[in-house]
Structures are given as structure tokens and as C-alpha cells.
Amino acid sequence: MRQKSIATYTATALLGLGLLLGATGCKESERDRVLMYNKGNYLGPADQKLDDGAVRDLQNRVRYQIAA
User: Fold this and answer.
1) Mean pLDDT by 10 residues, the chain (68 residues)
2) What residue spans define the domains of the chain?
């Protein structure tokens, strides 16, 4: 009788743990992500354009890295 209640408790605990772990995979940030991929095509949101100052800063950084 005691082993049956231990087995029931263990099964219930494992089921609860499985449900808890399954629910954590349903975070809001993971709901609308791309799950089907096309080779060579980016299916995510479009990138934002960099302003002229940011492009200039990146170009200067590359020049510095090449010179070093």
C-alpha cells in the first residue's frame, strides 16, 4: 500500500514537472519566431537603415583595425 502511494506521488510529481517545463517553452518572445527556413532567404523582420554618422563610425573603426 505504501509503495503504491509513493509511485502515485512520483508519477504526479513527474507529470507536474513536465507540464511546468512545457509551459516555460511558451514564452511570448518565442511565439512568433520563424520555424520554417528557406535556404538563402532571411525570413525575419527587415533591418533598420543606419544613419550616416553610424556608417562613418563603422568605416573609421574598420580603417583603424586594418592599420593595426
Assistant:
1) 80 89 71 79 87 96 87
2) 1-27
